[in-house]
Amino acid sequence: MKSPKSRRKRLILISLGIFTLTILVILAYAFPRLPIITGYVAKEVCSCTFVAERDIERTKNEDVGYFPVNLASFSIDYEAKTVRSHVLGLASEIAVYRPNLGCALIHDATREEVQSQSFSLPVSVVDPTLPFPYGDYVVDTIPSNIDESKLKAAMDFAMNCKGTRAAMVVYKGQIIAEEYADGFNKDSRHLAWSISKSVTNALYGVLFKKGIINIKESANIASWEDERQHITIDDLLQMNSGLEWDEDYFDLSGATRMLFKQDDFGAYAAEAPAEFKPTEHWEYSSGTSNILAEIMENRIGNQAAYWIFPHIELFNNIGIQSMVLEADASGTYVGSSYSWATIRDWARLGQLYLNDGLWNEGRILPAGWVEYSVTPAENSGGIYGAQVWLNTTGEYLEGCPKDLYNFGGFNGQNISMIPSKDLMILRFGLDSIEKLDYAAFVRQLIDAVEAK
Fold first, then answer.
1. Helix, strand, or coil here: 195?
2. What pLDDT digit, counting tens, does each position of 316-344 carry?
3. How far apart are CA 15 and CA 69, in angstroms?
4. Where are the alpha helices (DSSP H) in 271-396?
């Protein structure tokens, strides 16, 4: 018979073995995923610091202050304009800043190569005396059919949510409500996340109008010599390419590998094999939007011309001065995710769509482009058009008009257009702090507009 001492020793050894095995299993699972956390933190802190010029304590406490991203530590080199992040010294990631092209994570490229990317913005002036959206003057009288008490109650509902940083209501082209959380104002840039996909839509509208692309033609990706050669630009715009993709931001997936472990997002996404035939299966894919960004670069042909194209052909023409489209380390715009602008400039983009692509009697988007953009993609269940979310079934935003369409992004970024009401609603913030019931906010504002 074994002594109590030897049994105790054996139990300790077994316990140590189980503990060690548990730690190894946890590390095996966690370690490959750490770059998602460190990459997110390095990129977010870099952009908040050098693009939005935000207070670092606010960035630390809010933008990267929630679990699990708050597990990462970071350091900022203000002279080199870089941010490095790690978790307990592991999975270090570095993001670098370039004027007018924002921040990018770097892996195979060098800091010097990436920071050599630069271009000068064309001069753009918005007359502060002209009424919004053509200028920056906000009329202080509200149309008589608006119930001001209900309007105020709706804005209070949004602004009392700790996650809301800015909210705006535009009715018949006029700003009727505009509020900001402490620390933010009309000049603050806000990250729009997947609203960037709707920017990509607008840029493709311009490309189509100028005859640079035909959306019905093949995407013409050089490596697509197999069944993928039949994928059209239209298929990509409508998320109907059939390419294999996994849009999961909380694990290793196509989306997280692209955003946090690659230098060239579009090239990585284009490596995805065909899982279905085009239009056979609808699937939301940030990879698709970055393939579109790469196609745009290839069609324009010259990288410097590509960088300046959105500004001279779209933004300057509608008075958008604050927009920063961030590029990946290869210099290609991140068509899926990374764009920054003030709320008023985001509202100008939305107003262009409410105006059916017209601006000050000039046509920016081709005739029929907005209608095409808000036509449900095949097999999308009526919730998606061409890089635009739709409420055609009433399921996307419950209880809201079915003609509502939305430029929507991660963490509660929304620009909603309701043509039947000539109404636009914007809310930007951080749902990771506190989630706003956005559909309820929209319903309250519609009630305020229809009250009289």
1. helix
2. 999 999 999 999 999 999 999 999 999 99
3. 31
4. 286-300, 303-310, 343-354, 369-373
DSSP string, 105-134: E-SSS-HHHHHT---PPPP----TTSBTTT
Give CA angle at 50 (254, 206), nearest 5°.
60
The count of other CB atoms within 10 Å of the CB of residue 308 is 18
For 153, list phi and psi in degrees, rounded to 5: -65, -40
- CA atoms lying within 13 Å on the CB side of residue 193: 17
Q: Are 304 and 117 in contact (CB under 8 A)?
A: no
Distance, CA of 154 to CA of 444 (rounded, Å): 6
- 267 alpha carbon, distance to own chain's centre: 19
Q: Is the pTM of this model over 0.90?
A: yes
Pairing relationship of beta strands 358-359 and 324-325 according to DSSP bridges: unpaired
Task: Tell me which DSSP letter residue 211 carries.
Answer: T
Q: How far apart are CA 334 and CA 338, in angstroms?
A: 6
Cα(251)–Cα(234) distance, integer angstroms: 29
DSSP state at residue 201: H
Backbone angles phi, psi at 407, to 5 degrees: -90, 110
